[in-house]
Amino acid sequence: MSRNKVTVVGAGNVGATTAQRIAEAGLADVVLVDIVEGLPQGKGLDLAEAAPVVGHDARISGTNDYADTAGSDIVVVTSGLARQPGMSRDDLLAKNAGIVRSVVKQAVAVSPDCILIVVTNPLDAMCHVAYDAAGLPRERVLGMAGVLDSARFRTFIAWELGVSVEDTHAFVLGGHGDTMVPLPRYSTVAGVPLTDLLPADRIQALVERTANGGAEVVALLKTGSAYYAPAASTFEMVDAILRDRKRVLPCAVRLEGEFGTEGLFVGVPVVLGRAGLERVFEIELTAAEREAFERSTASVRELVDKLAAMPV
Ligand SMILES: NC(=O)c1ccc[n+]([C@@H]2O[C@H](COP(=O)([O-])OP(=O)(O)OC[C@H]3O[C@@H](n4cnc5c(N)ncnc54)[C@H](O)[C@@H]3O)[C@@H](O)[C@H]2O)c1
Fold it and tell me: How many CB atoms lie within 10 A of CB 262?
């Protein structure tokens, strides 16, 4: 039986770290792609030379040519620019949309059966770009954000209560980052709702820290943004799909009526298995939760409308 094949587009911090996790878990052969000549080849070679020490047989290589990515089971898209001084959010939106559109077209042309996992920001808007460029069914276009947002929330809950991160579960909905909607009544420690364990003001503080989680890391690093937790979160989605685990994970998916939303990529809990999105895990929301979810979807819709008005 041949090993699965995963292509990671973008050999930067998130891409290379994701490639490392996948290869070192022996989960799949990995091809790293980047527009910069030598970068994916150099990182691929370096990672391959770690294999004898780590003890895995996955093949890992780097390339600038999509022909080498042909037949991939999963394509992870991390290529993009970070916001630079003087660049507006809209400039970044247009630039990254161009990059995501181009890499998705090239990757899907040689891997028509792949499942796409989009990581590039602004996440929910880039999922739309990828979906339109790929022409794949919605089951095979997923965005990574909720796993990361809930990992951050779980970390802060565990620290606050002095318990293992393993026993904390967090439930988040909505767009990525500051429009995320954490649901404390569905977030639990060993099955006990967070709302029974902490006063509302402490929960609110943890929620705010989670929503600003990306910015907190950027402020410390000064150059670049978070990548260890984003790569670990992307790996968890790849693992759930390739091993057909039916994990219930929060992912950005194109809603088609679920949660009262039509034709929009937003983060919701889904069942992830070998087919990609296998089921949207729909839950009842209270009036306040629905209002927060609708605020979040409105901000995703605003970006998508801006994209639609931009020249391609
Ligand atoms: N969804 C999330 O939760 C999440 C979390 C962290 C980072 N991100 C996003 O992921 C992206 C990558 O972050 P990073 O820290 O790895 O950035 P990075 O700058 O380290 O890497 C980006 C890579 O993309 C490459 N690239 C640019 N244009 C390309 C093209 N046309 N084809 C192929 N490669 C191209 C660059 O050369 C670079 O190596 C950013 O958009 C970032 O905002 C998202």
Answer: 10
